């Protein structure tokens, strides 16, 4: 499953507001380094952004982007529904 | 929604062997996934799925466990080789149930797609409002045919 950790990070940021990688690491059984890597991937997808506050780097969920992504994923899921329905039709027609 | 995978399932009133053949036989694939298909059914084997109006999408088979599990990594861009950041992993699981076969598909790796590529996908799909509706109609049509 790729990737429950990123999902959890997004959930934490959405629920608790902006946080640093260290704060996030305190609530998860993985290293701060691993979390930084996951955050970089999420940032690359535009799902989180970061900003500097003194020595801290705070991460925040891009709600708008997340909603767009959800819309996009819903479309892809509908596409799979259509494909599975076709598979069903073909498999059942063979009897 | 904050997950980066898609998971869908359907119950099919047919044996797993039959569903497996629909999933893996190029002739069948061309009916439910694009307009043409080729697949070399072994780990590392190459596959391609063609759409008349769009182009050809390449994939690499990862897991072949007949008739239980099939997975492949497919590129999200036309004629691209599937690679980290530009592809997603599709895994089919077939489970025997009293009615026949429970077919589950899980597609993972969306959050790892390169930002620009994911943004392009979104932009393309947001411009086609009627698209989701069309697919819903297709599903309904297919289910009516199967009933």
Q: Can you characterise this structure?
A:
The complex is a heterodimer of chains A (95) and B (147). Chain A contains four helices and three strands. By secondary structure, chain A is of the alpha+beta class. In chain A, strands 1-3-2 form a three-stranded antiparallel sheet. In chain A, a hairpin with a 2-residue loop joins strand 2 and strand 3. The relative contact order of chain A is 0.12. The model of chain A has no long low-confidence stretch (mean pLDDT 84). Chain B contains four helices and seven strands. In chain B, helix 1 packs across helix 2. The longest helix of chain B has 17 residues. At the A-B interface, helix 1, helix 3 and helix 4 of A face strand 1, helix 1, helix 2, strand 7 and helix 3 of B.
Number of discrete helical segments of chain A: 4
- Report the count of strand segments of chain B: 7
Largest interface: A-B, 45 and 50 residues
The topology string of helices and strands of chain B comes to: EHHEEEEEEHH
Number of helices of chain B: 4
What is the strand content of chain A? Answer: 5-15%
CA(first)-CA(last) distance of chain A: 34 Å
The largest sheet of chain B, given as strand count, sense and whether it forms a barrel, is:
7 strands, antiparallel
Helix proportion of chain B: 25-40%
Write down the overall mean pLDDT of chain B. Answer: 80
As a whole number of angstroms, the C-alpha radius of gyration of chain B is 16 Å
Record the strand order, biggest sheet of chain B: 1-7-6-5-4-3-2
Rg value of chain A: 18 Å
Low-confidence stretches of chain B: 126-145
Spatial arrangement of strands, main beta sheet of chain A: 1-3-2
Number of DSSP-assigned strands of chain A? 3
Shape category of chain B = globular
């Amino acid at each position: 499953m790729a990737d429950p950790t990123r999902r959890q990070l997004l959930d934490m940021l959405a629920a608790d507001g902006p946080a640093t990688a260290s704060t996030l690491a305190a609530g998860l059984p993985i290293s701060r380094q691993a979390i930084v890597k996951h955050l970089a991937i999420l940032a690359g997808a535009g799902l989180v952004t970061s900003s500097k506050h003194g020595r801290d780097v705070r991460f925040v969920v891009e709600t708008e982007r997340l909603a767009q992504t959800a819309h996009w994923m819903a479309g892809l899921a509908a596409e799979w529904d259509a494909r599975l329905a076709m598979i069903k039709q073909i498999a059942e027609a063979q009897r | 929604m904050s997950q980066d995978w898609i998971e869908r399932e359907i119950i099919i009133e047919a044996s797993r062997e039959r569903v497996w053949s629909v999933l893996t036989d190029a002739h069948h694939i061309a009916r439910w996934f694009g307009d043409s298909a080729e697949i070399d059914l072994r780990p590392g084997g190459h596959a391609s799925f063609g759409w008349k109006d769009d182009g050809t999408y390449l994939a690499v088979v990862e897991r072949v466990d007949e008739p239980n599990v099939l997975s492949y990594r497919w590129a999200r861009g036309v004629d691209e080789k599937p690679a980290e950041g530009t592809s997603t992993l599709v895994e089919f699981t077939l489970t025997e149930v009293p009615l026949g076969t429970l077919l589950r598909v899980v597609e993972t790796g969306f959050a790892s797609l390169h930002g620009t590529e994911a943004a392009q996908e979104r932009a393309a799909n947001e411009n086609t409002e009627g698209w989701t509706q069309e697919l819903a109609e297709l599903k309904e049509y297919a289910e009516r045919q199967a009933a």
